[in-house]
Amino acid sequence: MVQRSGSTWFCLRRKNIFFSAVDKRLVARISIVWEYAADADAGRSPARMTIHDRVTQIYEAERENIYCYLLCFGVPAGRAQELAQDSFVKLFLKMSRGDEIDNPRAWLFRVAHNFALRFHEREPAFEELDANFQMPGISPNPECALIEQQRRSALVRAICELSPQQRNCLHLRVQGLRYREIAEVIGISTSAVGEFLRRAVAKLKESKIA
Amino acid sequence: MPSNSSAHLSDDQLARFEDGELPEPESRHLKNCTECGTRLDDLRAAAAAYLEYRDSIRGPLRPPAPKQWPRLEILIERHEKANSTTPFRWRLALALATAGSLVLALAVMFLHKPGDQPSTRAAELLTQAARVELPQGRQISVRVHGRVLIRPAVLTSVISERQRDIDDVGMAFTAAHYSWREPLSARSFQAWRSQLKKKRDSVSIIRQKDQGESYRVRTDTSSGVLRSAALTLRAQDFRPTDGSFEFESLGTVEVAEAFASAERPAPRSSSAVKEAPTEKPAGAEDTLHVLAALDRIGADVGEPIDVFEDLQHHNVVVSANGISAERQEQIAMVLKPLPRVVLHVGSDTSSTPPEQPTAPEKYSVNIPAPLRQQFEDRLGGAVAFQEATDRILEASASVVAQAHAMEVLARDFAPETEAHLRAQDRDLLRELRENHVRELERLMAQIQTELKPLLAPRDTTAGQGSADTAETWQAGVPNLVVAAQEMDQALNRLLAGSYSQSSGEQMLRGLTSEAVRLESSIKSQEPVGR
Predict the structure, then answer these.
(1) ∠ Cα B9 B14 B19 (to 5°)
(2) How many CB atoms lie within 10 A of CB A9?
(3) In the 8-state DSSP scheme, what is residue B4?
């Protein structure tokens, strides 16, 4: 499957794409994950790309995601950016040594997770939230704004009720990671990932969010 | 694979379908099954809801990256430069320190007069302190933003040097050209001070009743990332006892001799309750004594507490998060008599309720009506069924917690480690194991009793839970953990899950063998001769 996005072509290696019916933007994002193909204008194939080129592409596509993931663990912005950059340097060094990495993206999340652990010198809670935080303004129409505000408040309350592990699993899932990759990132079993997600879905369903 | 065409996909199969890893015959089931389709839709809807929350609600509030993202080649270049210049930097720092010492020594010899300017007095004190031989194996505590790191006063190993690269504090020291290898040292202070073009020194005398007199040498500068550094020198022997470093971006970093900080009243910080490292490295017996102490107050099972040796194997670190102040006090109390133990507790326990990730979420609204009716009839009504569900799932979660406690023992006390323990420590380990096994047996009996009305009489061919045979008790623990998790999963699915009548009946039948397997794994953990 090949999909055109701006001036860049992405090859999708897998037939079934998670959430393909849910969010087209996500498909575009996931497509970057699975296979970094050559830039059409440059006319190069992945096989002929240097490691530097490959890591540069991954770096440009994923640095914000890794940065945001570290922020979710409460790492301050400046440090989160440094650690995100360090993750990519590590990736480059590892690939330069000839080490095989099946999914560089999952690998980066794992490194970021470990950085977050080291930063806190403990198991940090993922997304410690306050259900009463002030949400950004939305619609100029007061009536629509009120309805939307209520809907969003319900969504925030529901997400707040999830455990940090459940939020972490959901976060990585919407980032396009497979169950076993999520398990590797967090350091738990695949069945535990399934259980966390199952409970998260049940809770959101109970809150009439999902 | 579903055993027949009517069987629904398991959670694992649904996950594999979404990941594109489910074989075609099983994928076909989804097209025709509304129940599985609904479950899949629920999962997708949950993900879509989280995506909206992340991108539209939380996203705008997240701070953007503070700096522009540099190009990858610049990052790699920086990394290579940092690695290649590190040894040179140490040599340079040492050379500067030596040269600085000589220059200052000469200055003291020729120019010193009592009551000189503060800079001369500071240089003199530092020179005298730099000559002092410090004992080997000192430990220091580094405190920044409530985090405390206990480490050797002098980093020597390669691992420790690498550790510096990923540590924000170490990087700040390196950027300031101040030795992170040995921060609590007059020589390091001199080396940093001597390279400053503009500086202002001050020297003060501190008199404390119980600790005698000390000098506090402080240097402020307007250049570089380290704006101010202060070092306290004990007057009797010029030994540096603590230091304070004010960084432009990082804030204040406090460094102190670790045992010294335990002797005097430490600043009240929720992240460091006790620091009592000594010169002798921590060993397996220290970890064992910590676990035994925690076991006495039931804190070794089901609580967010980690016990591990620090990187340098100097201390056993007990890390506790999200526990109440009262519990913190209890833990601190039982750990107090033990040497080489550092207790770290989470910084904010007042607003965050303890996280119980394995706690069952009990509801049983999606059990097919006939099966639910059957359960209720056998247990004596809807209320009785709900209460039994609560008790069973709680007991099952406790089984998993106990199994994890056994896993910790097996991890920390491998056969060769256990063999090197003293006889009394081996007995203590055995006692701990016995406690866990006893509790596992009690919980299992409770679950069996609760489940008895629901299950068919046990098939004699299923066995009576004869013990698994493993060479060592440690080798049997992984089976125990897996059996406990699978039993917990099966119970959660059966009593609080969503499934069809036929799947429910199948799960009910499978539960007996799950229970037998878990019983066998528990039996295999019974110490010999019990």
Answers:
(1) 150
(2) 15
(3) S
Bridge partners, residue B170, by sequence:
none
User: Which of B57, B81, B481 should be substituted to probe chain A, the one whose Cβ sees the most A Cβ atoms within 10 Å?
Assistant: B57
Is ipTM over 0.85? no
Angle at B11 between CA B7 and CA B12, to 5 degrees: 100
Q: Which residues of A touch B80 (CB under 8 A)?
A: none
Quick one: which of B519, B335, B376, B368 has its CA closest to B440? Answer: B519
Report whether B255 contacts B268 (CB < 8 A).
no
Q: State which H helix or E strand residue A156 sits in.
A: helix A142-161
Stretch (H or E) spanning B226:
strand B226-234
Query: Is the Cβ pair B47, A170 closer than 8 Å?
Result: yes
Residue that is written with structure tokens 């499978």 in the block: B510
b (16+ CB within 10 A) / e for B288-304: bbbbbbbbeeebbbbbb
Q: Are A90 and B170 in contact (CB under 8 A)?
A: no
Helices B473-496 and B382-412 pack at an angle, to 10 degrees, of 160
CB contacts, 8 Å: B16 with chain A: 179
Query: Is B237 in contact with B132 (CB distance < 8 Å)?
Result: yes
Using alpha carbons, select from B173, B169, B175 the residue that is nearest to residue B78.
Answer: B175
Q: Is the dihedral of CA B28, B31, B37, B41 positive or negative?
A: positive
- How distant is the alpha carbon of residue A78 from its chain centre? 19
- Of residues B116, B225, B115, the one with CA closest to residue B171: B225
Ordered per-residue pLDDT tens for chain A, 210 residues: 333 333 333 333 333 333 333 333 333 333 333 334 333 334 444 445 788 888 999 999 999 999 999 988 888 888 889 999 999 999 998 888 888 888 899 999 999 988 888 777 555 556 555 555 555 555 567 777 777 777 788 888 888 888 888 899 999 998 889 888 898 898 888 888 888 888 888 888 887 665
Pair of tokens at residue A152: 């969003």
Q: Chain B, 31-90: which have a CB under 8 Å from a chain A CB? A: 42-54, 56-58, 60-67, 69-73, 75-76, 79
Using the Cβ of A16 and the Cβ atoms of chain B, whether some distance falls under 8 Å is answered with yes
CA torsion sign for B117, B122, B125, B128 is negative
Instruction: Kindly report the backbone phi and psi dihedral angles of residue B446, in degrees, each rounded to the nearest multiple of 5, phi listed first.
Output: -65, -45
Q: Please name the residues between 308 and 367 in chain B that touch chain A, using a CB distance below 8 Å.
A: 319, 321-322, 344, 346, 352, 355-357, 361, 363
Give the Cα-Cα-Cα angle A26, A27, A31 (nearest 5 degrees). 115
